[in-house]
Amino acid sequence: MPKPYVPNDKWSQRAAEEGYRARSVYKLQELDEKYHLLRFGMKVLDIGAAPGSWLQYTSKRIGPAGLALGLDLKEIKGIAPNVKRAVCDITDETAVEKAMAAVGMAEADIVLSDIAPNTSGIRDVDQWRSIELSRKVVLFAKRHLRPGGKLVMKVFRGKNFDEFLKEVRQDWPNAKPYTVAASRDRSMEVYIVCK
Ligand SMILES: C[S@@+](CC[C@H](N)C(=O)[O-])C[C@H]1O[C@@H](n2cnc3c(N)ncnc32)[C@H](O)[C@@H]1O
């Protein structure tokens, strides 16, 4: 019989105790507390959303007047009436538009992306994959955000990072990189906050 999963770091243990599906929730919480991202009534697109801890947190922050749509290659289990979910590849524009139309979301107030490529364990390869995926996230946000909307996305730091940040700043001149406490000690991940 496979052994049950036992969280082995303080963030995972806390997430399990507090009923969240992943330790990543504390990353969004920290970003939200620092940058005041989420508000009651907002329309939120969460991309790369499985297993759904960001959606659990977002659901509470936007309340019943808000709407969140979580998109992922993997299925996301149900969360709350103000959270809708769809299995889709965010690079497939037709699938994304269909998912948004199905829930009546024309534009989002904020795009959240915790999306991560399949990792190989080779640092440079993984970083390159992350940047390529993040370029898709930027295109996604430009298509689906309302004017003045916000984007928060995870990227892996590495040799192409500065160039990528410059690209992002062409559309969001104030884009800021921020490393959250809950990122593992030696993690390459950083969040770019675009307001
Ligand atoms: C770190 S997890 C997200 C965790 C999530 N924020 C949470 O709190 O539960 C990254 C997700 O990105 C998804 N992903 C990777 N490439 C994708 C793509 N092209 N389209 C949609 N989702 C993708 C993966 O399936 C994975 O579930």
CATH class: Alpha Beta
CATH superfamily: Vaccinia Virus protein VP39
The total of beta strands comes to 7
Alpha-beta content class: alpha/beta
User: How large is the radius of gyration?
Assistant: 16 Å
Termini separation comes to: 48 Å
**Domain module count:** 1
> What's the shape?
globular
Q: Can you offer a commentary on this structure?
A:
By secondary structure, the protein is α/β, with parallel strands linked by helices. It contains six helices and seven strands; from the N terminus they run H-H-E-H-E-E-H-E-H-E-H-E-E. The chain has a seven-stranded mixed sheet with strand order 3-2-1-4-5-7-6, sandwiched between helices. Helix 5 links the parallel strand 4 and strand 5. The longest helix is centred in the last third of the chain and has 22 residues. The mean pLDDT is 93. Bound molecules: S-adenosylmethionine. The site of S-adenosylmethionine (SAM) has 21 residues, from helix 3 and strand 2.
